[in-house]
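Quarterly update, task 2.4: PRP-bound model.
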Amino acid sequence: MGKLTIINHPLIEHKLAIIRNKATDTKTFRENVNEIGSLVTYEITRDLTTRPVEVETPICKTICQVLAKEVVIVPILRAGLGMVDGIQLVIPTAKIGHIGLYRDEKTLLPHEYYVKLPKEIVDATILVVDPMLATGGSAIVAINHIKARGGKDIRFVGLVGCPEGIKALRAAHPDVDIYLVKEDERLNEVGYIVPGLGDCGDRLFGTR
Ligand code: PRP
Ligand code: URA
C-alpha cells in the first residue's frame, strides 16, 4: 500500500490559515497556494534517487550527486495549475503534462476535456498535482491516464484531503504515495471538503 504523508510545518500551517479564510483575495490565495507548493516539494522529493557525477570546482575535481530520473509534474486542471509554479521553482528541470477534468456538480463524476503528457513519463518520477482530494474521482481518473501511457513511479500531491478521497484513491491506486498538508473531517452533501477552502479553482482564477 502506498504511503499517506501529511506534511507538517509551521509555515505551511500559517499559509493554510490564509487560504482557508474566505476573506482572502484571489492574488493572495494564488500566491500562498504556490508557496505551499514549493514548501511541500522538499518533503515529496526527499527520497528521490541520485547518481554520482564528476564536477570540477575552481579548486579540484570532486564527485557530486544529481537526480537519477527526470521529474514530470502533471497538474489536474484547473486547480492543479495553482501549485505548478511553486513546485517548478524548486525543480526547474521538470517537464509538465496537463490533464483537464471537471466534476459534474450533480454526479460529482470527473469529465475529461484535455490530456497532454510528455513522453518522459515512462521513466520519470511523476507528481500528479491537485490541491483538493474530495471524492478522489479526479485523481483516480488522472492516474488511470498516466498509467495507460506507461507512467509507473507516481506520487499524488495535494493540499487538503478527506477520508473519503484518501480511501478511494488508495483502493484504486495502492502503489501511489499520497502527500497532503491536511486531512480534513469529511465531504459535505454537495461534495465539498469540510472545513476545506471552498472551490479551489474558482478561488485561484477569480471565477464565480
Ligand atoms: C476540483 C478540484 C479537483 C476536484 C476534486 O476540480 O480542483 O480537481 O474538484 O474533487 P474530486 O476528488 O471529488 O474529484 P473542479 O472539477 O471543480 O474543476 P476546476 O479545478 O476546473 O475548478
Ligand atoms: N473541489 C474543490 O475545489 N473544493 C472542494 O472542497 C472539493 C472539490
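Highlight for this quarter: Residues 13 and 161 are 15 Å apart (CA to CA).
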